Amino acid sequence: MQNNKKLTDTLMRPLPKEALKKHPSRSYLTTINPIYVTDRLNEAFGVGGWQFTPEVVQDDTNPKMVIMRGTLTADKHNIKVIQFGGNDNDDRGDAYKGASTDALTKCASYLGVGAEVWRNFKPAEAELIKEVDKDILPEFKKKFVSNKGLTLNILNSWLRAKKLIEEKQVYTSLKETQIKDFEKNWDAFIKNVKEHNGTPPDKTTK
Question: Which end of the chain is less congested by CB atoms within 10 angstroms, N or C?
Answer without folding.
Answer: C
